[in-house]
Design brief:
mainly beta; 72% strand; elongated
Length: 201
């Protein structure tokens, strides 16, 4: 019995996730709304967020990164002003190695986003993409999105510079309307390129 307890204790000690760092950051996020069969939209975005970095087990270089960020993006096109606001919760696994005085950490993970706002304004009238009565059945969108990301961070002392690419797996719009023998479709999803400046403490 003592041997079993010792083995369990050893396994738990190896699997323990130990807190390592806090990170606050700002991002520049050029985004794309990919439209199947239509013109893409390219909103410009800014974000601010927080991450907690954990060392996994006895391998301190292997990191679990979890946090949240607030993102706002906007675009004017064809006399229409678009704006999007969301909260994202990214979770990543990365491996940090030292290159001289600089730490390098490639990482990848998944994220869940909840849109607080997605609207189009034209001629002084604003329409929400989440209100079918305002935008119509075809343009109605989903607030919750799930996606994936891949990126790399470089840190020097407490400062971090990073780049990443994120793309949603789920559709922002995924609607089909039957008009007699004709079907009209609206399918779109988000992706974004992220440039990060952060501070770890």
């Amino acid at each position: 019995m003592k041997k079993i307890f010792a083995i369990v204790a050893l396994m738990l000690s190896v699997m323990t996730v130990n807190a390592q760092n806090n990170e606050v950051y700002i991002q520049i996020n050029p985004s794309t709304v990919h439209n199947d069969g239509g013109d893409n939209l390219s909103p410009f975005g800014l974000a601010a967020g927080y991450n907690r970095l954990f060392g996994i087990g006895c391998e301190d270089n292997l990191k679990l990164i979890a946090g949240g960020k607030f993102n706002y993006a906007w675009k004017s096109k064809d006399d229409v002003d678009y704006s999007f606001m969301k909260i994202a919760v990214p979770v990543s696994v990365g491996y940090r190695f030292q290159a001289g005085q600089v730490g390098i950490m490639p990482y990848a993970g998944i994220d869940c986003s909840v849109f607080l706002l997605a609207k189009a304004k034209m001629n002084g009238e604003s329409k929400s993409f989440f209100d079918e009565d305002e935008c119509g059945e075809l343009a109605k969108a989903s607030r919750v999105q799930v996606g994936g990301h891949i990126g790399i961070d470089a840190d020097y002392k407490n400062f971090v510079l990073g780049v990443a690419y994120q793309s949603d797996f789920t559709k922002f719009q995924d609607n089909t309307i039957s008009l007699g023998s004709f079907e009209e479709k609206q399918k779109s999803y988000f992706s974004e390129f992220e440039i990060k400046l952060g501070y770890r403490f």
